[in-house]
Amino acid sequence: MYPHQPEGSHFVEGAYRDDREGTPFQSCFPADGRVIARLHVATPAILDHAIHSAQNAQAIWRTTSLSERQQVLRRVAEILRDRNDELARLETFDTGKPISETLVSDPASAAECFEYYSALSPTALQGSTEQTDTGTIKVLKEPLGVCVGIGAWNYPIQIAGWKAAPALLCGNAMIFKPSETTPLSALKLAEIIAEAGAPAGLFNVVQGDGKVGQWLVEHPGVAKVSLTGSVATGKKIHAAATAQLKHVSLELGGKSPLIVFDDADLEAAVEGAAAGNFYSSGQICSNCTRIYVQRSAFDRFLELFIARAESMKMGDPLDPETEIGPLVSEHHAESVRTYIELGLSEGATCVSGGPNSVSMAADGTYVRPTIFTDVREAMRIAREEIFGPVACVMMFDTEEEVIGRANATELGLAAGIYTGDNGRAERVAHQLQAGICWINTYNEYPIAMPFGGYKQSGLGRENGLLVLDHYTQTKSILTQSR
Ligand code: NAD
Fold first, then answer.
1. Sheet holding 135-143, edge to edge
2. Whether pLDDT at 358 is above 90
């Protein structure tokens, strides 16, 4: 028996299920490669069961009062908090992220999301009524039906929670497919949603790779797809879903800029840059991997940034002191290492970390925080998402120049500004082509704040009130007054 073996590979209609006909796959602890669970890819029988039970559950749930739905969501938040430590440990085993992070960030963020939607005023979903000369117009916000959530591997339970909570609040059912790299914590969320009193089948979890995802996207019984993943996958899912005119939300990759003006609190800016490049070993979509520092502050910023990077304790993710854990897999570590070597061959200067700081296999998949200078925007390390602890630090002179350089990318997930001048911060934020702008902070995600990208970083938003529009459709009813 493996240490984190679930009772079954899937959670469908209120119980763990398995079908040994499905292709076997495993989850490994990235710190040492140890197998922690063995599972099976969902077969058509499991997937059909997931669709039918979700349809049946949604028929009950859509007529359940909003306050009863909110009670279930509140209970989910409570159970997530009660089981926080156990869930954090599981997430650390599945992803390799340090326990110092997962204890405060992963199940906690999912709990915060369920709590936020459980506490929303009913007016958020109430619609409106208007008397006109023609008659009474009632505008209702109705659920879409069965929604599919597809997750990336970097924040598995948070991603599942950010999709499930608003979808369920709006009266939908959800079938969630976690990344095949990190299949375990979504099963726990399904168990918790069932325990909280949701009808069996309301939130089903099925396992598998992109083929299972594609099967779900193309199924006629699915009304909406919400993906968190790469731009390449987003384009495929968008094409498949819109071919059937389904609703789609896409939370994709980024190559976000951080702009540090010379009047900024440099220590705070360094903290923001470290959090936005090295937390979760850099495996965060909204990271500020292009750091622009104004000329007169450049040397001091770089000195502090290198010192901060080199002070970070790398090691066993289960050690509470560890700040840098392994990357999620050997395959991914290889990709990050290739980018570091590419940066050197493109002529950038590595001032901390580097390719020799990468270890693989028996040593785990560790990469030291790596910092490049002498970077030009044409270089691939400055244009492409690396999704590891690799930062490019560049110099700028004027506000106008840096805005142009920051926006010169096909991506537009996030941006950060550090300055002591509030007027300038606002002015620059308004000109940045990014879905999220942080001023004098970085990578903070209160659930009330809509999250999502401009340009190829995505479509639609998660969180806040705005997401309710992405899980509902509008019905207008006109009753003639005569
Ligand atoms: P990925 O695109 O390889 O996979 C994401 C998910 O899509 C997986 O569950 C995968 O099985 C599934 N999938 C793959 N092909 C599919 C297809 N044709 N049809 C349906 N499903 C398919 O991404 P990843 O490597 O798991 O995650 C890393 C990426 O996710 C990075 O680009 C990162 O920026 C992005 N990400 C974005 C956000 C955000 O909120 N914007 C958050 C986290 C991660």
1. 128-131, 135-143, 472-480
2. no
The three-class DSSP label of residue 112 is: helix
Predicted confidence band of residue 361 (pLDDT cuts 50, 70, 90): low
Residue 359 has a pLDDT of 72
Q: What is the pTM of this model?
A: 0.97
End-to-end alpha carbon distance in the chain = 72
Q: 91, 101, 180, 251: which is the annotated catalytic residue?
A: 251
Distance 228 CA to ligand 1 centre (A): 5
Q: What is the C-alpha separation between 31 and 327, in angstroms, rounded?
A: 8
From 233, 236, 331, the mutation candidate for ligand 1 (largest count of ligand atoms within 8 A of CB) is: 233
Best residue among 113, 147, 150, 410 to mutate for probing ligand 1, ranked by most atoms within 8 Å of CB: 150
CA dihedral angle for residue 98, residue 104, residue 107, residue 110, rounded to 10 degrees: -130
Give CA–CA dist 270/261, Å, rounded.
12
Question: Is any atom of ligand 1 closer than 6 Å to the C-beta of 205?
Answer: no
